Amino acid sequence: MMYMDAKDIDYYSLGFEYIETKTMFVSDYNDGKWDEGKLVPFGKFEISPAACVLNYGQGIFEGMKALRTKNGEKVLFRPKENAKRFNESASRMLMPNYDVSKFVDAVKDVVRANEEYIPPYDSAGALYLRPLMIGNGPIVGVKPAKSYKFIIFAIPVGPYFPEGFRGIDLEITKKYTRAAPGGTGATKTCCNYAGSMLAGKEAKEKGFAQVIFLDAVHMEFIEEVGAANFFAVINGTLATPKTTGTILPGITRKSILELASKKMGIKIEERDISYKELFENSCSEAFCAGTAAVITPIKSIVLEDKKRIFSEGEPGEITRKIYELLVGIQRLDIDDEFGWVVKI
Ligand code: PLP
Ligand code: COI
User: Of 124, 140, 145, 281, which has the highest C-beta tally within 10 A?
Assistant: First the structure.
């Protein structure tokens, strides 16, 4: 048996690490069309050394979570949004689109097939779903592949940042950028992540959890954290960088903006945020948000010799309220009046 037996997993001490589960979904694209796709045992597959993804990085992915509710139901959060963003990434990378409802059905099938790996309601865990698509056709010129593979696998995970809700220390980098205008920053293409790893590694060596990237043109405006969007409370307003093509349009980000403005009466702003604003007293809280990161408070921010401490282990009031509302809805502890939660 290659995969880990679900009964042997301690769901209460999970981090964000690779654990093999039982079943994955695979669909192949040949001669201009996708096959029906099917569930298969999780496992390796062959790939040509000349595959476009191996040589030119033609690959995209998504990240989603299946949660267990108090009543024992299995739920997903806004899965159609992931399917739509997957297709936007695909189009940018000259890859074929995948039917949105088939995408959601396949994700549900993978959750059902790996049901025993969904962490219990009272753990901080989730079954993380990883849909991905690769150009696996052989190609030597810099051109899109002719054949593709779509895969969805699942892993039980705990918090992305081990610090969890205690908050993280971040460094603003002026050495590296993540994306430039006209590039691929708004897509979930693998290359964006490969290119950000060195910045993350150097920050971790200095004791930070991750970096905050600035915009590549002015080196002044906040973009995002390596794998999550950025929010700050400035003069009582919830501000987040606007999506102009260089940051990932997060589904958590979009949900938080809706909750803050429609449910919590908090003023929101999508705008350019200068890093200088984070060092002023008008900025009272900061956090990052994403599927993996959920809502992680930012304890402190450093840029060169400047340090701003937001909190010593206690997240700000607005951060905490948004967290409670978002996670409450995701786990159906709070009425899902926007119809975001999909039962499986
Ligand atoms: N930014 C980046 C670079 C990410 O990888 C992610 C995670 O998917 C996010 C932001 C947050 O997006 P979402 O909330 O859709 O997970
Ligand atoms: C997610 O939040 O799902 C992500 O994709 C982040 C990551 C682990 C790359």
Answer: 145
Of 157, 189, 212, the position where a domain reaches its end is 157
What's the average model confidence in pLDDT over 100-115?
98
pLDDT tens-digit series, residues 125-166? 999 999 999 999 999 999 999 999 999 999 999 989 988 888
CA distance 95 to 89: 8
Output the CA–CA distances (angstroms, integers) from residue 87 to 20, 60, 150, 297, 298, in the order listed: 26, 9, 12, 31, 32
CA of 227 relative to ligand 1 center, distance in Å: 5
Q: Does residue 2 register a pLDDT over 80?
A: no
What are the two backbone dihedrals, phi and then psi, of residue 308, each rounded to the nearest 5 degrees? -120, 120
For residues 22 and 99, state if they share a domain.
yes
Of 252, 254, 327, which is best to mutate to test ligand 1, by the most ligand atoms within 8 angstroms of its C-beta? 252
- Residue at 262 is within a domain: yes
Verify whether ligand 2 is closer than 6 Å to residue 291 (CB atom). Answer: yes
Domain boundary among 157, 184, 216: 157
Q: Judge if 84 and 195 occupy the same domain.
A: no
Q: Looking at residue 213, what is its pLDDT? A: 98
Mean pLDDT over 255-282 rounds to 97
Are residues 127 and 176 part of one domain? no
> 135 and 202: one domain?
no
User: Does 248 sit in the ligand 1 pocket, CB within 6 Å?
Assistant: yes
Q: Alpha helices, DSSP H only, in 37-99?
A: 52-56, 79-92
